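Researcher: We're teaching a course module on how sequence relates to structure. For the next exercise, students receive a sequence and then see the predicted structure as tokens, so they can try to spot secondary structure elements on their own. Here is the exercise chain.
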Amino acid sequence: MENEKVVALQEKIARGLLSIGAVFLRPEDPFTWASGIKSPIYCDNRLTLTAPEVRTDVENGIVEIIRAEYPEAEVLMGTSTAGIAHAAISAHIMGMPMGYVRGGAKDHGRNNQIEGKLEVGQKVVVVEDLISTGGSCIEVVDALREAGAEVLGIASIFTYGMKRGLERLEAANVKNVSLTNFDVIARIAAQDGYIKEEDVARLIAFRNNPSDESWIGGNK
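Model: And here is the predicted structure for the students to work with:
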């Protein structure tokens, strides 16, 4: 996609996610992740499923990414569970087959980890809702590669752009293209009054080093 079109799409998706609370920013009262890290952001893209207008923008955006970045795609594979619905809707729009990849193989039946028909050599795009450290989506890519698929890359809704995640994706030779990202979310949130302008630098400081909590009192 052309750069201006990319930026317009990133901002549109950012505004949509903010408007429904799928991305919620609270720098003055941080959330606590399971790891214990304090975070100014909470992200739940499942909320897009119950917001038809935003959902339509998201699915059409994923389709745009796939057509522009992965034109050879033959199958879409969602990540379990958050990526499944987005993969299904996008595949329906494109008239393509889809399936999904479990976090691990089932312990009954055929012990499948990959659900849906997948042929050796097929060109696959993974559909993911959120990328932070990159670990879970890389596991999905690895499972697909082990099954003989050619993974072209990932189409995701949102990425934090954290250094660790970017490095892990690069090391695993995995391309990711997201509809929007942390920097765009922070900028649009300030423009539209969700946060103060001075909070943007605090958010970026968190993104750059989540384990350093000095950003919490950054504007006091």
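Model: If you want an answer key for the exercise: The helical segments are 3-19, 52-69, 84-94, 135-146, 163-171, 182-191, 199-208. Residues 52-69 form the longest helix (18 residues).
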